[in-house]
Amino acid sequence: MVENVAVNVEQWLSNFKTLPPIEQTTVDEHEKVFQMYTGDYLGDCDYLRAEGERERLRRLWLHYAHQLSEFYIKNENYLAVIKVQEKVQLLFSDEEENYFTLMKLYDLLNNGAAVEELYWLLKKALQEHLAVEPSEEIEEWY
Question: Of 43, 90, 84, nearest to 64 (Cα)?
Answer without folding.
Answer: 84
